């Protein structure tokens, strides 16, 4: 969960988000080094007249400033591609959950384990309990087991939506008539909040996402209870 006046990302709760945080710091350091180097050259040219024929008209310099940006891009692209394939990889999922976006709520279908489904609506401000977050709490949370690979199948019933949770490093478009897939594994217990990240209509800001990660024993008890109530 984000904090007031927070700078940077939320604390990572999944391996993918940990990799994204590392990549962010890696890229930021590259940008910082480039900025310092360019600033040094500019200040040198302004203050000490760091200009001569070798710098202004040199085939060697032209080769360097052509190849160097290409090498920097490769240096950034390699870890980026690694994370891209990591987010797409799903190895023997323990559970499959289908998420469908509607105007303006989410519905969840558990098909692999005690097949059942439910809708998740935002709790109105006047019905919130002490400690609950305005515009983020839902009447039914999506519950998943900790440290278990989960396959998310995401689609929409009417218009474009986007299922996004910042602390898990997940943002998948929900497209009508199309089924998008994303792997999810949460490495610690807790409650994680997200919102629809696609402008989907008048109540776009009123369809939050709440994912609760619990131990497998608690998940089995919860799923059994949900099955009895359906």
Automatic annotation (TrEMBL):
Cofactor note: Binds a copper A center.
PROSITE patterns linked: COX2, COX2_CUA, COX2_TM
GO BP terms: ATP synthesis coupled electron transport
This protein's record includes keyword Protein biosynthesis: no
Chain ranges of the Cytochrome oxidase subunit II copper A binding domain: 92-225
Residue ranges occupied by any Cytochrome oxidase subunit II transmembrane region profile domain in the UniProt entry: 1-91
Cofactors: Cu cation
KW Cell inner membrane (keyword) present: no
MF terms in GO: copper ion binding; cytochrome-c oxidase activity; oxidoreductase activity
InterPro entries xrefs: CcO_II, CcO_II-like_C, CcO_II_C, Copper_CuA, Cupredoxin, Cyt_c_oxidase_su2, Cyt_c_oxidase_su2_TM_dom, Cyt_c_oxidase_su2_TM_sf
Keywords tagged on the record: Copper, Electron transport, Magnesium, Membrane, Metal-binding, Mitochondrion, Mitochondrion inner membrane, Respiratory chain, Translocase, Transmembrane, Transmembrane helix, Transport
Pfam families: COX2, COX2_TM
Membrane topology, record value: Multi-pass membrane protein
Record GO cellular component, one term: mitochondrial inner membrane
Cell compartments where the protein resides: Mitochondrion inner membrane
Catalytic activity: 4 Fe(II)-[cytochrome c] + O2 + 8 H(+)(in) = 4 Fe(III)-[cytochrome c] + 2 H2O + 4 H(+)(out)
Function: Component of the cytochrome c oxidase, the last enzyme in the mitochondrial electron transport chain which drives oxidative phosphorylation. The respiratory chain contains 3 multisubunit complexes succinate dehydrogenase (complex II, CII), ubiquinol-cytochrome c oxidoreductase (cytochrome b-c1 complex, complex III, CIII) and cytochrome c oxidase (complex IV, CIV), that cooperate to transfer electrons derived from NADH and succinate to molecular oxygen, creating an electrochemical gradient over the inner membrane that drives transmembrane transport and the ATP synthase.
Membership in a protein family: Belongs to the cytochrome c oxidase subunit 2 family.
Name recorded for this polypeptide: Cytochrome c oxidase subunit 2
Species for this entry: Austrolebias charrua
Gene name of this polypeptide: COII
């Amino acid at each position: 969960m984000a904090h007031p006046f927070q700078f940077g990302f939320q604390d990572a709760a999944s391996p993918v988000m940990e990799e994204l945080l590392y990549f962010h710091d890696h890229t930021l350091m590259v940008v910082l080094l480039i900025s310092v180097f360019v600033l040094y050259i500019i200040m040198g040219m302004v203050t000490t007249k760091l200009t001569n024929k070798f710098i202004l008209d040199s085939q060697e310099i032209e080769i360097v400033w052509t190849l160097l940006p290409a090498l920097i891009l490769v240096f950034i692209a390699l870890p980026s591609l690694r994370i891209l394939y990591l987010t797409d990889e799903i190895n023997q999922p323990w559970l499959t959950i289908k998420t469908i976006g509607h105007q303006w709520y989410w519905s969840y279908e558990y098909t692999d384990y005690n097949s059942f489904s439910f809708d998740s609506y935002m709790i109105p401000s006047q019905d919130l309990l002490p400690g609950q977050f305005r515009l983020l709490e839902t009447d039914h949370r999506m519950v998943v087991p900790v440290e278990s690979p989960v396959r998310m199948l995401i689609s929409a019933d009417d218009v474009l939506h986007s299922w996004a949770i910042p602390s898990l490093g997940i943002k998948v478009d929900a497209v009508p008539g199309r089924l998008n897939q994303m792997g999810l594994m949460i490495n610690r217990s807790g409650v994680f909040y997200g919102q629809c990240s696609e402008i989907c209509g008048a109540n776009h800001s009123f369809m939050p996402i709440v994912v609760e990660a619990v131990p497998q024993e608690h998940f089995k008890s919860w799923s059994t209870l949900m099955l009895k109530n359906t």
